[in-house]
């Protein structure tokens, strides 16, 4: 494990529950992760308060103040790079990122998505899983590429769908798994164990399966 910490910048738009899980994990004495800054496109995002409470630098960049996605993303790149992170983590950042942004952080940009990708890219994943009658549901951490929710998978947590589940109960159980697998994936990257190779994600130098590392709690 590296003796120096891996600097991470987290992007978010909302409550920041995944950020809190990352903060809690990074506080462990042997964690290779240092959350350098949290940036939001919304000044009222509660995740910013979580960061401030943890003594982490914060910044707000309002996308509505920019003339289009590309202009916002370029300003966001400049704000992120001021912290010189080795990894950028999307934790409920509700913006579709431009190709230029994604290419700039190729191989060092992670996202978490509330479905078992490649199923249910986009929104309303829990409702869609129920409507399809799926027996299993879950969440996925993946490297970000130019394809929306389509980058190489790192780790997935799989949970059973109960007969009486609603989108709300399913979301609650999926969230609890997100809080486990996202810090895990980030720590793998920070420790030098996880990287993006030419043909997909590599863990300890070995290609991960197309579905990533599977966890069944």
UniProtKB/TrEMBL annotation:
Single GO term (MF): phosphoribosylglycinamide formyltransferase activity
Database matches in Pfam families: Formyl_trans_N
Catalytic activity: N(1)-(5-phospho-beta-D-ribosyl)glycinamide + (6R)-10-formyltetrahydrofolate = N(2)-formyl-N(1)-(5-phospho-beta-D-ribosyl)glycinamide + (6S)-5,6,7,8-tetrahydrofolate + H(+)
Lineage: superkingdom: Bacteria
Keywords of this entry: Purine biosynthesis, Transferase
Annotated GO CC locations: cytosol
GO BP of this protein: 'de novo' IMP biosynthetic process
Residues given in the record as (6R)-10-formyltetrahydrofolate binding sites: 69, 94-97, 111
SUPFAM superfamilies: Formyltransferase
UniProt site positions, description: Raises pKa of active site His: 149
Annotated residues for binding of N(1)-(5-phospho-beta-D-ribosyl)glycinamide: 16-18
Keyword Transferase: yes
Family: Belongs to the GART family.
Role this protein plays: Catalyzes the transfer of a formyl group from 10-formyltetrahydrofolate to 5-phospho-ribosyl-glycinamide (GAR), producing 5-phospho-ribosyl-N-formylglycinamide (FGAR) and tetrahydrofolate.
Name of this protein: Phosphoribosylglycinamide formyltransferase
Source organism (scientific name): Pseudomonas putida (Arthrobacter siderocapsulatus)
Source organism phylogeny: Bacteria, Pseudomonadati, Pseudomonadota, Gammaproteobacteria, Pseudomonadales
This protein's encoding gene: purN
